[in-house]
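Quick start: read one record
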Amino acid sequence: MRYLERGQKGFRQAMAALFAGGFVTFAILYSTQPLLPVLSAEYQVSPAMASLSVSLTTATLAVAMLWTSAWSEGRGRKPIMAASLLVSSLLALLTAFAPSYGVLLVLRALLGISLAGLPAIAMAYVNEEFHPATLGLAMGMYVSGTSLGGMMGRILVGALSDLGSWRAALGALGIISLLCSLWFWRALPPSRHFTPQPEAVHHPVPSFARKLRDPGLLCLYGLGFVLMGGFVTLYNYMGYLLTGPAYGLSQTEAGLIFLVYLAGTFSSAWMGRLADRFGRLRVLQAGIIASLAGVLLTLAAPLAIKISGTALFTFGFFGSHAVASAWVGKRADGEKSEAASLYLLFYYAGSSLAGATGGLLWSRFGWPGVVALIGGLFAAGLALTAGLAHEHGKAGDPRPPAPVKT
């Protein structure tokens, strides 16, 4: 059976569907992030407590992915991904009607569980269905969808909360997500290279243990933790900085900072192609260095420099994540969804732990404390690439073969 590749029927449709899936996932997942200052004021909770509306969702998502990825090995990829998006969209609608902050947190926790049916399985789908020569491009397109979804969801919610209320904003996002989810279910081609492994559903622990014994995968999992931990920390507390006394921006104006996600939408696909051409390690290291430079620029007081630094940081993050996540599937020897789910477990664990820790540093040290945390995480990421370089020297990182007809 043929793999999906350029020029083949279904290639563009599959790419567009993956883009839509990533869009919905991140639009819903981080929809409360621009509302953190609003939630703090309305419910009289601290920044660290308000950030639980994000961190709790990513925590339950991380844990639930271990189960859904194993389930997909026996049940298939597309049905679980489509059901995940539909249920998540309905839950996102319900958050608009939460009568209290406690109920909102419960719904957000359930959202994390329902969203778990897409990210790890999408990575496995890409590695199974796309030709190796287009693997980086396909994964980059999915990550581009996540970046655009994260951007548009945050901007839309921020603007609508100014025009009406945060409840109306979350309700509108839920309706948009539901429409996109229905299109995903119709457009994504069914799996053609998936081989059911029913034993993985009932006995997932051995496969996870094998993936945790691979030094190269462990380095990639660590990278997922530090990259996402730094990324979420920056955007969790940038809103407090921009709407605070130093700059005094409105929710709509502060929400425009998420336009810099366009840099990530570009870099994820572009750096994915560069990795296909020049090798993953060098491109990954360049992305991390770019993010380090960007977060240091945000220490400057002028707003234009702060925004430029945020854009550079975002550019490097999304490109690095696209390369690392594609590398996980390439490195895994079978049981790709388990390998992907472990990467995302660390990825979202970084989001939850670092995101909450950032609130404590923000309250005590202000923006320099947040930058110190992010800089330390990305410096650790560079150290992890040294471990990848060692594994690269042993196993190699060959460039993919030219497309062939199969």
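The chain has one domain: 11-189+204-395.
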